[in-house]
């Protein structure tokens, strides 16, 4: 162990507080992006009294690492108290004057931590990174003031990213308003009733584990997962989740790769891409679910969606009206990627603290 490294177990302790009085109904889960997310579990009729409580300032993690995208699902709660499934482990920092919890979360966010956790995982049916292994993690623990400085620098970048994302959300809302203005309850004689397969062909994404890192965005149902060396498709497309969170439809106008739980689309008229995107995004895809335990979508359902198909001139007009908004979104997205790269550099320096 390096001289400045400490054993994590000396700074954390487990927490097992149950929701016995049912005082909390905010049910969350932990994603591989290391965030608390709204749970999609159906809890109607479920007894929530045995669910674990996570208090503000505490951590939760899922010890199962197999089939988890080579990542550990671990997150720090900086919002209101919540409950999570009893399959998660909850813990807290014992002395925040010695170890800043947000600094610790930065350490957990490093790709090296995920690789270490996968290497240390064990089991036959399921591979587990258990509590004892977590406690054996070694990390640098500089003076608390330095920890806070690192967290502050990281948060400044995070705040800038969040600002750019909010601006993009506003631009996206403006584009959607134009879509509704032009196409909702506004059918003319030049349009005809048809099905979506007249405008696109649905294709399956493919496995990505063999791909080296690069500059091509790799999309999953939650957005960009990483950047890879090869593109699956080079033209403008609309991406539609095939499994899991079905509502996260995406518009992509650059070369990309999409995972095998995503559909991508080959669009017959490029100027119709934005119209298709808003049409599909406005549909209740979850209500069309063909799955059981895991929400699922089929290419047949997408192809057979009925709609009023506008004439080419109207589609071109819409595309031209929203393109300036998309140009601004793209510039903001490029800045976000640069800021995220800065965050990665900052995380990589933690090992030398």
The overall pLDDT, averaged over residues, is: 91
Strand order in the sheet with the most strands:
2-9-6-7
Q: What would the principal axes of the Cα set say about the shape?
A: globular
Assigned CATH superfamily of the largest domain: DNA methylase specificity domains
- Tally of separate domains: 2
Counted by DSSP, the helix tally is 7
The SS-based structural class is: alpha+beta
Task: Please provide the count of β strands.
Answer: 19
Largest sheet at a glance?
4 strands, antiparallel
Could you explain the architecture of this structure?
This protein has 353 residues and is α+β, with helices and mostly antiparallel strands. The protein folds into 2 domains: 5-141, Alpha-Beta Complex (Adenine-n6-DNA-methyltransferase TaqI, Chain A, domain 2); 160-342, Adenine-n6-DNA-methyltransferase TaqI, Chain A, domain 2 (Alpha-Beta Complex). Helix content is 32%, strand content 22%. The chain has helices spanning 101-108, 111-120, 131-135, 144-183, 273-281, 299-303, 312-348; strands at residues 5-7, 12-15, 28-30, 36-38, 52-54, 59-62, 73-76, 82-84, 89-93, 138-140, 192-195, 200-204, 213-220, 223-228, 237-241, 250-252, 257-258, 262-267, 306-309. The strands form 7 sheets. It has a 4-stranded antiparallel beta sheet, covered by helices on one side. Helix 4 (144-183) packs antiparallel against helix 7. The longest helix is centred in the middle third of the chain and has 40 residues, at 144-183. It is globular and about 75 Å long. The chain starts with a strand and ends in a 5-residue tail after the last helix. The model has no long low-confidence stretch (mean pLDDT 91).
């Amino acid at each position: 162990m390096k001289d400045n490294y400490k054993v994590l177990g000396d700074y954390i302790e487990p927490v097992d507080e149950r929701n016995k009085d049912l005082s909390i109904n905010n049910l969350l889960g932990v994603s591989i992006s290391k965030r608390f997310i709204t749970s999609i579990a159906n809890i109607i009729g479920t007894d929530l009294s045995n669910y674990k409580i996570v208090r503000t300032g505490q951590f939760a993690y899922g010890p199962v690492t197999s089939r988890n995208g080579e990542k550990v699902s671990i997150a720090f709660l900086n919002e209101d108290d919540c409950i999570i499934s009893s399959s998660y482990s909850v813990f807290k920092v014992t002395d925040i004057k010695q170890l800043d919890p947000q600094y610790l979360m930065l350490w957990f966010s490093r790709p090296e931590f995920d690789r270490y956790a996968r290497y240390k995982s064990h089991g036959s049916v399921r591979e587990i990174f258990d509590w004892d292994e977590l406690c054996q993690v070694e990390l640098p623990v500089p003076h608390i003031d330095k920890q806070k400085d690192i967290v502050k620098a990281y948060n400044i970048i995070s705040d800038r990213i969040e600002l750019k994302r909010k601006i993009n959300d506003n631009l996206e809302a403006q584009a959607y308003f134009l879509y509704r203005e032009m196409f909702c309850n506004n059918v003319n004689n030049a349009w005809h009733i048809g099905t979506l397969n007249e405008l696109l062909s649905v294709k399956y994404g493919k496995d990505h584990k063999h791909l080296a890192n690069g500059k091509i965005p790799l999309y999953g149902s939650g957005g960009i997962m990483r950047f890879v060396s090869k593109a699956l498709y080079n033209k403008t497309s609309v991406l539609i989740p095939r499994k899991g969170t079905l509502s996260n439809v995406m518009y992509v106008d650059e070369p990309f790769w999409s995972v095998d739980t995503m559909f991508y689309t080959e669009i017959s008229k490029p100027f119709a891409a934005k119209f298709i995107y808003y049409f599909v995004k406005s549909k209740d895809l979850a209500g069309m679910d063909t799955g059981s335990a895991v929400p699922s979508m089929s290419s047949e359902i997408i192809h057979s969606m009925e709609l009023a198909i506008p004439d080419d001139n109207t589609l071109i007009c819409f595309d031209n009206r929203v393109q300036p908004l998309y140009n601004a979104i793209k510039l903001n997205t490029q800045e976000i990627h640069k800021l995220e790269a800065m965050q990665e550099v900052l995380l990589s320096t933690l090992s030398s603290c």
